[in-house]
């Protein structure tokens, strides 16, 4: 069975009307998002689960300088450990699922804090709603800088014809997609709309929690045409850019014995 087939073994299917979402609890991967006949999220032809869907990058987005979490002198891999560990299923029905990861013997050597991460994923009318709750049971502040890494399906020949609203610095027609695709951070205005050829109109939006936003940066990234997997473009809403966990002013600093929520909504309207 190839990864382009849906559903695969281990994939949980959520549905609401003409919206279908796939979730893999092993690594908390949103593996599929389709509205009518439009497969919004890319499914890797190579079977590399780290190159498809929409993984959650937690506790850190991208690489830390030297791979070191400076505050504790520990190592953290690029994009954190959340996508490499199994998450427990707390709740599941036809349209939604709630997954949870708690601190354990695998996380503490790298990220020496107690935590509870809870992901609630729900299918709506053309929408994928993702609520991440970060609980800090510690007596000290919990530093964290997570983000989302959606791979959106775009054929290589169509990338230059994407239209982007909300990121004025991004001009798809000016990018050399075949040889020099982007890997750049931009200020995220909490709502970006894309028109994707052969697909439809996609809105990536952060909803405020208690009047505040958390996702300040959007990383735009793709692969060159010579890569095995390349028929996607990533517009990644994240707390902050590379090495952000080592920048106290840019990361989230969650007070002792409190919680914090990040709410992301993808809305898709096929052409």
TrEMBL record:
A GO term, aspect molecular function:
carbohydrate binding
InterPro entries linked to this entry: Aldose_1/G6P_1-epimerase, Gal_mutarotase_sf_dom, GH-type_carb-bd
Top-level taxon in the UniProt lineage: Bacteria
Q: What is a single Pfam family found in this protein's UniProt entry?
A: Aldose_epim
Q: Mention one GO biological process in which this protein takes part, according to its record.
A: carbohydrate metabolic process
Name under which the protein is recorded: Aldose 1-epimerase
The protein's organism comes out as: Dictyobacter arantiisoli
Please name the taxonomic classification of the source: Bacteria, Bacillati, Chloroflexota, Ktedonobacteria, Ktedonobacterales
